[in-house]
């Protein structure tokens, strides 16, 4: 069988293209997400193998239940908060899974719990906090907005969600997570 020069060039180009497409699977980039703790917190492992917790910069997502008492609570305010918290957590899990469990972090600070505070993007550039704010699954967290490099993007996403009554903005009974935490401190 005789192969023409042009056919050989096409074959080489195809091998190169398909080879490059697979490089990301062979040599993954970014930090590996070990667990999505809630709607604004991840447990990750960096390329060196170091594990740490990341709190999303710029936003605050609804709470999820952490204790048995919270999980069993019948209080309407708890059920409302936890329902939205579960939706936010599920959305983050979905986004992370679509990205092969890899994220790119822009660390902006650390918090009082020792977590790294970061803007979190998927490998394709999708900004997770923007998605959550735009879908009404997280709110702009103004006390820390000054340490948010992409604050204009986040604020605009929240304005859109509010105008379109998406997510929590469609729920007149929703309490912002920081208010919920303050009301439920013991």
Describe the structure.
This protein is of the alpha+beta class and 186 residues long. It contains 6 helices and 7 strands, in the order αββββααββαβαα. The protein has helices spanning 5-26, 68-72, 76-98, 128-134, 151-164, 177-183, and strands at residues 31-38, 41-45, 51-56, 59-60, 102-110, 116-122, 139-140. The strands form 2 sheets. The protein has a 5-stranded mixed β-barrel with strand order 1-2-3-6-5. A two-stranded antiparallel ribbon has the order 4-7. The protein starts with a helix and ends with a helix.
From the N-terminal CA to the C-terminal CA, the straight-line distance is 81 Å
| Strands, total number | 7
Q: H/E element string?
A: HEEEEHHEEHEHH
Which structural category do the helix and sheet elements fall into? alpha+beta
Determine the fraction of residues in helical runs and give it as a percent range: 40-55%
Stretches where pLDDT is under 50 for at least 5 consecutive residues are: 18-28
Reported for the largest beta sheet, the result is: 5 strands, mixed, barrel
Alpha carbon gyration radius: 21 Å
Overall geometry: globular
- As a percent range, the share of strand residues is 15-25%
Strand adjacency order, main sheet: 1-2-3-6-5
Mean pLDDT: 88
Number of helices: 6
| Quaternary status | single chain
